[in-house]
């Protein structure tokens, strides 16, 4: 079994349904890779039963009755839009009659992903962090790397080479200067080359972002036409293009090192995707209007429930907690 592929096929319908659920959740994740999409196509075309099972899952998620269930659900007083944050573990959702079967099915889409997703990149990584974990490792050349939540790295420090592959997530690099041996970091789309500096590489679904804290780095796509970034510069690199150099405070890129994330007029969907990196389960936004709502502010990533409550109090949204692993924003 490859690291990006669900368990081997079985003749049992339940096993095929479980695989279909895994693929459905994985393909909707911000961090889904091109290789995973390719493996899904292979699995999807391998058996008519696979296509049928996946179609059933998709039909359920798009079913109007399910969304009517969300509309029918009412918030309990502990988490109402106008209430103050409450630390009680008894927060719950009062669910309309007949809604529980649909909500249970929705939860079933999430729970298998909790088991499957952590193994996607950690299985073959040299260094890896779990969801919500941040840790620093020292490399053999004296450089230090701090791995953000859900991050995986592969490292090659042999024969004078200094090479790191960011397989998943985000990392802060403090590189020991060595003029004879440049330090190289490859993301999904980006190539970064340095001698000695401090910078962040962040991998998202559609692009990598390189942000420089101090020093100078060269950033390129496919190692062609490198751009030079200085302190407080950042650049996005995607599969198709190398973006323009942007100037922004380096503190924004490194805020997670101090337990927070900062946004300035950013769509809610990006804010929720970032918050989701620090908690298990799924955060789902009901519609496009809410997804495009602009958000500014600094939020605590050490307590994502508190962050969600803060968003609920300052924006015209409601937070529905169906299970500890499924939160819907409507």
| Share of residues in helices | 25-40%
According to CATH, the fold-level topology of the largest domain is Jelly Rolls
The whole-angstrom Rg is 21 Å
Q: What's the CATH C level of the largest domain?
A: Mainly Beta
Looking across the biggest beta sheet, what order are the strands in? 3-6-7-9-10-13-14
Domain FecR N-terminal: 18-59
Protein name: FecR family protein
Domain FecR protein: 126-218
Organism: Methylomonas defluvii
Describe this structure in words.
This protein has helices at residues 13-27, 34-46, 48-61, 64-72, 100-116, 119-122, 250-254, 268-276, 288-291, 304-314, and strands at residues 74-75, 93-94, 127-128, 135-138, 144-147, 152-156, 162-168, 170-174, 183-186, 190-194, 198-203, 207-214, 217-221, 224-229, 233-238, 246-247, 260-267, 282-285, 294-300, 319-323, 326-329. With 330 residues, the chain is α+β, with helices and mostly antiparallel strands. The protein folds into 3 domains: 13-121, no CATH class; 129-251, Jelly Rolls (Sandwich); 255-329, Phage tail protein beta-alpha-beta fold, CATH 3.55.50. Strand 4 and strand 5 (144-147) form a beta hairpin. Helix 1 (13-27) crosses helix 3 and helix 2 packs across helix 3. It is globular, with a radius of gyration of 21 Å. The model is unreliable at 1-11, 73-100 and 111-116 (pLDDT under 50).
């Amino acid at each position: 079994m490859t690291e990006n592929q669900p368990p081997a096929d079985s003749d049992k319908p339940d096993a095929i349904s479980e695989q279909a659920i895994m693929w459905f959740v994985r393909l909707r994740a911000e961090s889904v890779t091109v290789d995973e999409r390719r493996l899904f196509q292979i699995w999807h075309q391998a058996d008519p039963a696979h296509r049928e099972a996946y179609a059933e899952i998709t039909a359920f998620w798009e079913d109007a009755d399910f969304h009517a269930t969300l509309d029918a659900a009412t918030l309990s007083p502990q988490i109402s839009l106008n209430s103050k944050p409450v630390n009680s573990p008894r927060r719950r959702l009062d669910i309309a009659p007949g809604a529980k079967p649909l909500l249970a099915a929705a939860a079933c889409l999430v729970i298998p992903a909790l088991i499957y997703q952590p193994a996607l990149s950690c299985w073959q990584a040299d260094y890896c962090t779990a969801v919500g974990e941040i840790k620093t490792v020292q490399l053999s050349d004296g450089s230090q790397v701090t791995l953000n939540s859900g991050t995986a790295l592969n490292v090659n420090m042999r024969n004078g080479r200094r090479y790191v592959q960011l397989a998943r997530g985000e990392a802060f690099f403090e590189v020991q200067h060595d003029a004879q041996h440049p330090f190289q970091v490859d993301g999904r789309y980006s190539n970064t080359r340095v001698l000695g500096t401090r910078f962040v590489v962040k991998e998202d679904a559609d692009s990598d972002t390189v942000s420089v804290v101090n020093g100078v780095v060269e950033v390129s796509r496919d190692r062609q036409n490198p751009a030079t970034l200085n302190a407080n510069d950042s650049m996005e690199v995607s599969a198709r293009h190398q973006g323009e150099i942007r100037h922004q405070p380096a503190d924004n890129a490194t805020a997670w090192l101090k337990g927070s994330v900062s946004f300035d007029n950013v769509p809610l969907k990006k804010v929720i995707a970032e918050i989701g990196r620090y908690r298990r389960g799924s955060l789902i936004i009901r519609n496009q209007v809410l997804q495009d709502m602009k958000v500014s502010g600094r939020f605590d990533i050490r307590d994502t429930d508190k962050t969600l409550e803060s968003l609920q109090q300052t924006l015209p949204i409601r937070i529905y907690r169906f299970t500890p692993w499924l939160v819907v924003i409507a």
